[in-house]
Amino acid sequence: MLLTVQTRLLPEGANSALRYVALLLILLLGAVSLFPLYWAVVTSFTHPQDVAIIPPSFVLTRPVLKNYIDLIQGTGVSNAPVVRWFLNSVFTGVASTLGVVLVASLAGYSFARKQFPGRDKLFWIIISTMLVPAWSTIIASYVLTLKLGMHDTYWVLILPGIASPFALFLFRQFAMTLPDELFQAARIDGAHELQLWWMITLPLSRPVLATLAIFTFVAHWNDFLWPLLVLNKPNIYTMPVGVSIIMYQIQGAGPSYGISMSAAILMSVLPILAFLLMQRQMIQGITIGSLKG
Amino acid sequence: MVQRTDSADSISSPPVSGLKRLPWLRMTYSQQDKVWGYLLIAPFMVFFLIFFILPYGMVIWLSFVDWHPRGVTEWVAFQNYVDVVEMPSAQKAMVNSFYYALMVVPTSTILSLLTAILIVSLRSPTLRGFFQATFYLPGVISGLAVAIIWRFVFDFHVGVLNYALSLISLEPVNWLGNIYTALPSLAGMAVVSSNGVAIIIFCAALLGIPTSLYDAAAVDGAAFWRKHWSVTLPLLTPALLYVIVVSTLGALQVFVPVFVLTRGGPVHSTMTVGYYIYNQLIFYGNAGTAAAAGLLLLIATVGFTIVQFRRFSQVVEF
């Protein structure tokens, strides 16, 4: 039997009945947590005519792409270039991920391996900004980027997020674990600091860089509040903002849930794919970012 | 890199001797180290100063002025704060956010801890990984997608919740349209759909408890509950604290579900601080009031922030 319960968490001599209860419970909880996503997938492939019927059908009998086609063609809504939104999200996501990783790896390397006055205090200040509620400064960021003329441009989606305290923290913690001998040897060979960063630190940090990149991209992809505030022209919308506008236009009617669900799924495809491909790194990343260090 | 060396020199000799000609590299090694230290953090610091530190100053200034995108900015002293404190919608927002956090945080913490205990009890690492992934998966998709999906789940006519009620012969509930059920519905959605991170953190913490401690407790004759009281709980406290603080901060700032599902209604019954600030800024163009509300939220959460800060200071070693 694959499923056995460790005695250290359950009472001594937990009998097989208790083990089955535990297994049943975990399956039940898992089903509850996955069910909405499952139903959204089923509904998104159901013909609009069959979406709002009672009793609902929980299995997909005749999968059709009509909802996705309607969504992409913008049927029933005005001015909805969905493909463009998707590409906007991809482009700004990739650009900001590259920026975040570059800037954080340079600074993380420095904070981990260089000695300079004020280093630890500075690091503290940067880390402590992670603990401040986003709502308290977002208004100022809104006004600032407005004054800089950045609203409705790609810049406003990329630049404000470049200095990421989380990325810096993650990278610094990793860079501190690298053996000092490597750096000394390279220095004796005449390498300067940028070479130490590029030829020693970065190649050794591939796993943490991958984790960082995936987190940054998914966070950027999923970000909704900031683009919602600073984007007003449909051509520049990111996927979430565009979808929220569609939702606003079609809300109410039962059959329109087909389009809503296909929009939700279309938005979720990349994060889910990223997760399936890089599960281990992501799960490790959460633990490093929160507990370890 | 500023290298102005003779070309012949840099070809014939290794880079180190070439670099020695530069005046600024006549510095001692530790001086060079300092300069490099600052140079390497410079790109980060530039963005950090502009987009993190500058807004802190600006938000304080904004909270004392009447600000309009086009027009005169007027100094109004504490008027914005007075407005926030006296406005019924703002009062409602604070009360609602508090209630929401009170409904979400304890329930979801206990639920994720229970789930984590069940997952850790599995002996097969493959299955443990599988279930961790299962519970984390709904957490990687955006809050917006989750909220859109739940609008369907909550639908009065065709939603799956009311369908389930009809199966057990109960009257359908207007989950989001009723002032008594709207906020609890949002809380319920959060409890079911946002446990992934907490579960992963609890799993890591539980798996990190050395088995030898349990063995030692068993040798000392500790019974089941005693064992968990004296071993599991103390070693789990940091993780527990972290999860509670982070989820409280998150719950107090809730915005996306409100925006998608209820827009603060019906009759302000789901007006939260986040939605209030959004409303003030976007619909009323009151950046000043929004800034004041944001700062009040910051003050209200300062206690949590300090707890988390302490936690970080234990974790981050210098």
Question: Which labels suit this protein?
Answer:
heterodimer; A: 293 residues; mainly alpha; MetI-like fold; 2 domains; 14 helices; 69% helix; B: 318 residues; two-stranded antiparallel ribbon; 73% helix
Question: Short description, anyone?
Answer:
Chain A is mainly alpha-helical. Chain A has 14 helices and no strands.
Number of strands of chain B: 2
CATH topology of the largest domain in chain A: MetI-like fold
Tally the beta strands of chain A: 0
Query: Going across the major beta sheet of chain B, what is the strand order?
Result: 1-2
Instruction: Predict the CATH topology of the largest domain in chain B.
Output: MetI-like fold
Name the helicity range of chain B: over 70%
**CATH architectural category of the largest domain in chain A:** Orthogonal Bundle
The radius of gyration over CA of chain A amounts to 24 Å
What are the low-pLDDT stretches of chain B, counting only 5+ consecutive residues below 50?
1-18
Using the coordinates above, name the CATH class of the largest domain in chain A.
Mainly Alpha
What's the assembly state of these chains? heterodimer
Helix/strand-derived category of chain B reads mainly alpha
Q: Which secondary structure elements does this structure contain, and how are they paired or packed?
A:
The complex is a heterodimer of chains A (293) and B (318).
Chain A: H1 16-44, H2 48-51, H3 66-73, H4 82-113, H5 119-128, H6 134-147, H7 155-158, H8 165-175, H9 180-188, H10 193-204, H11 206-222, H12 225-230, H13 239-250, H14 257-290
Helix pairs in contact in A: 1-14, 3-14, 4-8, 4-11, 4-13, 8-11, 11-14, 13-14
Chain B: H1 7-12, H2 15-19, H3 29-62, E1 65-66, E2 74-75, H4 79-86, H5 88-121, H6 125-140, H7 143-154, H8 160-167, H9 182-193, H10 196-207, H11 211-219, H12 224-252, H13 256-262, H14 273-283, H15 287-300, H16 302-315
Antiparallel strand pairs in B: 1-2
